Structure formats: C-alpha cells, structure tokens
C-alpha cells in the first residue's frame, strides 16, 4: 500500500518526522504554558492588588491579549522580536540581520496569550477561597508569606486545575499557528509532507488525528489530576469546586 | 512617533475590515444554524444521530482550526469527483473555503454551548409544559428554546468573539482580511509595532461592539429577572 509506505518509518515514509513534530508541538506548548504561568501569576496578582494603576494595567493586558487574533500576536513577537534583536546587535557592532529562533518566539507569543487566560483562571481560583480561612490564618498570627504558602497556594492550585486544562487545550491549538514562523511542529510538518507528496488530504487528516490524540489524552490527564487534587474534599462539595 | 505612517497604515487596514466582517457574519450565521442541527441530533433519542453529533463535536473541537482550513482548501481539490462536480466553482474560491471551515468549526463549539443551555432548562418547566398538553415542536418553541437561549447567551458571546479572532486565519488561505494585510504591511515596512497597534485597535473595537451588542441583547431578554419599576 502506497499510503502505508508514506506514513511508515522507512526511508520514503513521513512517520518518524510526524512523530518528532508531535513531540515538538508538546514541547512548545509546555514551554508556552510555563511562560504563561509566570505572566498569569503576575497579572492576576496585579488585578487583585486593589492598586488602581496595577488593576488598570492588568485589565489592559487581559483585554488586549484575549481580544486580538493569536496570529497577529505571533507576527508581533516574531517580526518585532527579530528587529529588536537586530538593532541591539547593530548597536553592539554586529552587522546584518539577526532572527529570533522560531521556538523561542513561538513559545513566548503563545505564552503571552495563555498568560492572559491563566491570569483569569488564577484570579477566579483565588476568589474561590473561603474568606473565613484567610481570616483564620491571620487570626492565629501567620505572616503574609506563610499565608500564601500554606493557605492560598495549595487551594489556588486545586481550584485552578479545571481552568488550566482549558488553557492547555487552547494553547495546544494555538501552537499550530507557530507554523507560520517555520518551526517544524505538527502543523508545519503536515504541510511540508502534504506539499512534497501532493497528498494534501491524507497528511492533513493524519495531522488532525494526531492533534485529536493529544487533546483527548491531555483531557484525560487533567480529569485525573482534578480528581486527585479533590480527593480530600467531601463528595458533596466536589460539584462546586 | 510617526503619525503620518500610523494614519496611512490605519487607512490600509480599515479597507480590509469589510472582508473581515463578511467572513465573520457569514460564518457565525452558517455555523450557528449548523450548530442548532448538531445539537438537535446530540439531544435526540436516536443513538446513531447522537453518536454522530458526539463525534462531530469531538473532531472539530479537538483539532486546530488551521488544519481544518487547510484540509478544506488544499485537501478537497485533490479529489477528481470534487474537481469535476458542480461544487468546484465554489470550493475553488478561498473565501468560500475560509467561511466553510470557520462555520464547520464554530458549529462544534456552538452545539456544546447550546447543549449546556438546554441542560439548564429546569425539568419542572418541561413537565409543566407537557402537563398542559404541549408536545414536540410547540414545547421546544415556547418553553425549551427561549429558556435555553437565555442560558447559553453569555457563553455564546464569548464564542463569537473567538470567531472574530479566528477570521485572522483566513489570511493563510490567501483571503486578504485585516491580519493578512497587517502581515503584508509588516513585511514591506519592518515597522511591526505601529502596524500591530493599528490592527489591534481595529480588533478590540470590533470585539467591544460585539460584546456590547450581546450585553444589550442579554439585558433585553432578562426583563422578568429585573425588579418591577416602582410606581412613581
């Protein structure tokens, strides 16, 4: 079968490349999620700070990066980052054009977007902590740092799991857009395979199936994590958390 | 800051707004109707229809829109029976392919949103409708649909904002909407920040208008929840 040979692992097959590309998609999405966690935590704490300037800055961040197309943000980081690096290079005496690596710029762009969504997830999770628990912690004399470590963080992480699962799925699908910068992730590799074999339908179907496997597997993992994180909660409260 | 450049890029980008709006409105319309069809199958008692709808929702929500769009744009033309059918003059057009794939994708998301709206209809209200002799379509039209629509509205407004952002992908299949034009401007001028700023303002204004319109719709549909005006 010619089709099987095209998808196989032999010298004329694209199997190995597609597998590597799937891992690349996972790697770039995981990096983006980690970058987004940092941005998200900073923006969420700015929005919760009560300080008018910080709240406004936080609102601007979440509005802009949730309201502007992902593709445009990828262009901004990729082209904008490259020209910024080039001008820094020229200033330091290097002649010519310096490009931003597509992995770094893609992960940063998707990370900035997922940071905007993660900020809302963390904010919601913080607001879900019972006020009484925070009061109780201050009442028995916990310092601010200890309150964060012992009371706030464990619960924010638990409440945030379902939302983080959604953000992960979003970022996984956004990562396909990084292909426009030339990073050999799943979308890009399917495109290259489709173009060079002229089997467009076959390779886009296979690429789509690999994405479906990734999304359904990660859905299952997040469900298990949610169950595990909530194992100390009474069954009746599970629905609300 | 170079205001002359900002103005000229803004003018170039604004000229592409009608294309974005056509993409958006047609795909929301077709996707919404298809979503209604899918959700009808999903909640119907027929196991074949139900599983088909489940599969549809799983496939179109689980894979990136970009790969769906490329499948429609590049993949369909590969088959002779499509190339030589009456559909080809339509499917040859990038605009039609973009709208088709946007609509197919949003139908999956919309169907799930509509279903959560239907599930939010209290069984008591359906029972009451049955008790006074409503059945079938009348029950759907008078009881289930209006209540489900109101419940689904907030999530649906989020979905159509996402659709507005998704129209940007049409630029990858050579439809020159706002993002595509912005990308062309960036590669011609290398002034990423200014062009991005103009395009971002356009999308934020469009999304703001959508959200305001949806909030207005929500407000006008919730008259029964507001306190009665006091007799002054």
3D architecture notes:
The complex is a heterodimer of chains A (241) and B (232). In chain A, 79% of the residues lie in helices and 0% in strands. Chain A is mainly α and 241 residues long. Chain A has one domain (2-238): MetI-like fold (Orthogonal Bundle), CATH 1.10.3720. Chain A is flat and about 70 Å long. The termini of chain A are far apart. Chain B has 232 residues and is an all-alpha fold. Chain B has a single domain (3-221), classed as MetI-like (MetI-like fold), CATH 1.10.3720.10. Chain B contains eleven helices and no strands. Chain B has helices spanning 3-14, 17-43, 47-62, 65-75, 80-83, 88-91, 94-119, 123-131, 136-166, 178-189, 192-220. In chain B, helix 3 crosses helix 7 and helix 9 packs antiparallel against helix 11 (192-220). The radius of gyration of chain B is 22 Å and the shape is flat. The termini of chain B are far apart. The model of chain B has no long low-confidence stretch (mean pLDDT 91). Classes of the chains: A mainly alpha (241), B mainly alpha (232). Chains A and B meet through helix 3, helix 4, helix 7, helix 8 and helix 9 of A and helix 3, helix 4, helix 9, helix 10 and helix 11 of B.
CATH class descriptor name of chain A: Mainly Alpha
Ranges of chain A with pLDDT <50 over ≥5 residues?
A: none
The chain-level mean pLDDT of chain A equals: 89
- Biggest chain pair interface: A-B, 37 and 40 residues
Tell me the total number of β-strands of chain A.
Answer: 0
Fraction of residues of chain B in helices? over 70%
Helix content class of chain A: over 70%
**Fraction of residues in β-strands of chain B:** under 5%
Number of domains of chain B: 1
Write the H/E string of chain A, N to C.
HHHHHHHHHH
The number of helical elements of chain B comes to 11
Q: What best-fitting shape of chain B do the alpha-carbon axes yield? A: flat
By CATH's scheme, which homologous superfamily of chain A applies?
MetI-like
């Amino acid at each position: 079968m010619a089709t099987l040979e095209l998808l196989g692992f032999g010298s004329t097959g694209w199997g190995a490349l597609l597998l590597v590309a799937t891992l690349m998609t996972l790697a770039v999405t995981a990096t983006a999620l980690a970058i987004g966690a940092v941005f998200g935590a900073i923006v969420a704490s700015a929005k919760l700070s009560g300080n008018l300037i910080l709240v406004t800055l936080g609102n601007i961040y979440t509005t802009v990066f949730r309201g502007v197309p992902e593709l445009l943000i990828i262009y901004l980081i990729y082209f904008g980052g490259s020209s910024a690096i080039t001008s820094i290079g020229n200033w330091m005496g290097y002649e010519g054009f310096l490009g931003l690596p597509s992995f770094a710029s893609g992960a940063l762009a998707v990370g900035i977007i997922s940071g905007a969504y993660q900020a809302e997830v963390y904010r919601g999770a913080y607001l879900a902590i019972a006020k009484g628990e925070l009061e109780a912690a201050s009442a028995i004399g916990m310092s601010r740092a200890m309150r964060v470590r012992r009371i706030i963080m464990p619960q924010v992480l638990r409440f945030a799991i379902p939302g983080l699962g959604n953000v992960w799925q979003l970022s996984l699908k956004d990562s396909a857009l990084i292909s426009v910068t030339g990073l050999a992730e799943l979308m890009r590799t399917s495109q290259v395979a489709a173009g060079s074999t002229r089997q467009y339908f076959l390779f886009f179907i296979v690429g789509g199936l690999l994405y479906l496997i990734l999304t359904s597997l990660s859905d299952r993992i997040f469900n298990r994590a949610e169950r595990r994180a909530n194992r100390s909660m009474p069954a009746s409260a599970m629905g609300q958390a | 800051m170079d205001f002359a450049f900002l103005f000229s890029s803004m003018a170039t980008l604004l000229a592409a707004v009608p294309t974005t709006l056509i993409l958006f409105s047609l795909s929301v319309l077709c996707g919404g109707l298809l979503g209604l069809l899918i959700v009808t199958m999903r909640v119907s008692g027929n196991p074949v229809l139900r599983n088909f709808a489940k599969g549809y929702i799983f496939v179109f929500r689980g894979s990136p829109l970009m790969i769906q769009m490329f499948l429609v744009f590049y993949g369909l033309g590969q088959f002779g029976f499509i190339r030589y059918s009456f559909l080809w003059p339509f499917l040859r057009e990038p605009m039609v392919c973009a709208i088709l794939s946007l609509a197919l994708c949003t139908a999956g998301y919309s169907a799930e949103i509509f279903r959560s709206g239907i599930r939010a209809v209290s069984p008591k209200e359906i029972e009451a409708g049955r008790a006074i002799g409503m059945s079938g379509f009348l029950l759907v039209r008078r009881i289930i649909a209006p209540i489900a629509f109101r419940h689904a509205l907030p999530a649906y407004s989020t979905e159509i904002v996402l659709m507005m952002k998704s129209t940007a992908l049409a630029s990858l299949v050579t439809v020159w909407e706002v993002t595509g034009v912005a990308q062309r401007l960036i590669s011609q001028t290398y002034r990423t920040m200014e062009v991005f700023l103009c395009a971002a303002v356009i999308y934020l204004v469009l999304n703001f208008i959508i959200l305001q319109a949806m909030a207005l719709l929500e407000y006008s549909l919730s008259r029964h929840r507001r306190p009665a005006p006091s007799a002054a």
